[in-house]
Amino acid sequence: MSAPRPTAALPATRLIGDRLLQSMGVIVLALALSALGALLWDVFRDGWRRIDWPFLTSFASRRPAQAGIYGALVGTLYVMVMTAALAIPLGIGAAVYLEEYGARGRLSRMIEVNITNLAGVPSIIYGLLGLGLFVRAMGMGRSVLAGSATLALLVLPVVILSTREALRTVPKSLREASYALGATEWQTIWHQVLPSALPGILTGLILALSRAIGETAPLITIGALTYVPFAPDSLSSPFTVLPIQIFNWVSRPQAAFAENAAAGIIVLLLLLLTMNAVAIVVRDRFERRHA
Amino acid sequence: MTVSPRLVVRPAASGASLEDRPAKVDVRGLSFYYGPTRALSDITVAMGANLVTAFIGPSGCGKSTFLRTLNRMNDIIGDTRVEGRVLIDGQDIYAPATDVVLLRRRVGMVFQKSNPFPKSVFDNVAYGLRINGLTRSRSELEGRVEASLRAAAIWDEVKDRLHSSALALSGGQQQRLCIARALAVQPEVLLMDEPASALDPIATQRIEELIYELKKTYTIVIVTHNMQQAARVSDATAFFWLGRLVEFGSTETIFTNPAEKLTEDYVTGRFG
User: Fold this and answer.
1) Measured between beta carbons, which residues in chain A are less than 8 angstroms from residue B118?
2) CA nearest B100 in A: which residue?
3) Do A191 and B127 touch (CB under 8 A)?
4) B interface test, pick of A181, A190, A288 with most B CB neighbours within 10 Å
5) What average pLDDT does chain A have?
6) Confidence band (pLDDT; 50, 70, 90) for A151?
7) Which residues of chain A neighbour B117 with C-beta distances below 8 Å?
8) How confident is the model at residue A280, as a pLDDT?
9) What is the rounded CA–CA span in Å between residue A209 and residue A268?
10) pLDDT of A39 strictly over 50
11) How do residues B87-113 score in pLDDT, each as one tens digit?
């Protein structure tokens, strides 16, 4: 009983389908890229001339020509450092526990489903939670700390999920080699599993922090200011961040403020790219060492 | 082909030296379960000190699973169960008071696929010493690393590249590095799970010569698919079939005059 041989017509139709899908893919990609390119071009055309040293070192002002983004830039740096400081250890710790120590049962599956759902919750909901919990109940006020804690909560599910994925890709043979030498579970995780999973974990952190740096809604909800003529100097300072400053400028009627907004977007993009570049360099160094 | 084995384990017919030796690892009535599936049934076998004991048998017969019960490596797989006793120097390693971490330091393991850590050659060997806090000074650590690499007959090949990645070594070198790594913590028993199955004949020969050297110091248990290898390196051989120990005796007996028809059919290559 031999299988029927494929007819000559079959490969031809398959080839056509393949070509069709391939060209559709190229068209979709071109559409997406050109939209992005147009956006970038528009922003750079409007904002490039506005970027100079005074723009970076001046506070917000009612006069567009004198307005700068110093307050928002420092605010964003403060908030991002604190968000990372909160979300990274908590997220990685939770993922290590769930993946390495937690029991494989109904409870673990329920937690996993819920974390996945949390990753999809609209950010303004986190803002409301932050307002109720951090700003009011815990008395942090409209501070850098409250904003960072809110953003940390927001990105925590992404950090946990991507870290768990990364931990799962660590080969069993590596763990076994460590256990066979009399390593404890924690020694195995710390010396072998985490370093080996680090590139994957960093990819998740890039995604998470890139999301946090662009968030506006939850910070407005917890009461970040939209007009800040000062830079935060401590964790309890009121603050603003770049996206809020940009939003504030965009909503002004004067054309000069639109230029400021475009310049602000460029600064935000450069900050984001710098952050990602650092993470990618660190990741590649680890991948080379572990290749 | 029908086989109607009487699954009786006989002691070695010849080879009195085998029985005279004190048993280093003494397994009594061991059964092993993956969930509801029984993978090993009522295994009783003793491995003598400073001997090489080979486990042979077709794929899936449970010999690797059995090997992994001897250092409780199966513990890290969930949903498994062990019945019976495994005594090492008379102490039941499945007793509740057993320190599994300490046990694995006493019972080293080399895996089928060489699995060096993605670190330098030096750090691979030093890992076990460091995590167990076995050396007090840098010079002592260096000394133990060198001694282990020499014992695994790889020192001359790696002494000039101790601090480059272990992953750049050849397959055979990686496996000998893994042996050096296991030796570094000075185990008493060395478990080897098909240590040469992924290696070329020359690298295989080197591993076999190494095993011959190592048995002066260690009690060695080796799983192998290779009949000739079992015949060459081992003093005692255990033949497993479908999760049972069919026959155990001196290697000479098992290969030349086995008591069981099943064993004879397997070692002569009629099945498996």
Assistant:
1) 195-196, 289-291
2) A182
3) yes
4) A181
5) 87
6) very high
7) 174, 177-178, 192
8) 86
9) 13
10) yes
11) 999 899 999 999 999 999 999 999 999
Q: How is chain A split into domains, by residue range?
A: 64-289
Domain annotation for chain B: domains and CATH numbers: 16-116+187-267 (3.40.50.300)
Minimum Cα–Cα distance from A288: chain B residue: B118
A178 contacts chain B (CB < 8 A)? yes
- What's the token pair of residue A61? 């002002």
CA distance linking residue B45 with residue B52, whole number of Å: 14
Question: Which of A175, A180, A184 shows the shortest C-beta gap to B108?
Answer: A180
Cβ distance A179 to B178 less than 8 Å, yes or no, reads: no
Whether the CB of A174 is below 8 Å from some CB of chain B: the reply is yes
Give residue B21's pLDDT. 65
For residue A195, the chain B residues in CB contact (below 8 A) are 118
Topology (CATH) of A64-289:
MetI-like fold (1.10.3720)
Provide the percentage of residues in chain A whose pLDDT is more than 70.
Answer: 95
| Structural contact between residues B10 and B249, judged by C-beta atoms closer than 8 angstroms | yes
Q: Residue ranges of chain B with pLDDT lower than 50?
A: 1-16
Nearest-angstrom CA–CA distance, A41 and A138:
44
Per-residue buried b or exposed e for A153-178, using 16+ beta carbons within 10 Å of the residue's own CB? bbbbbbbbbbbbbbbeebeeebbbbb
If you average pLDDT over residues A81-107, what whole number do you get? 89
Contact assignment for A180 to B101 by CB distance below 8 Å: no
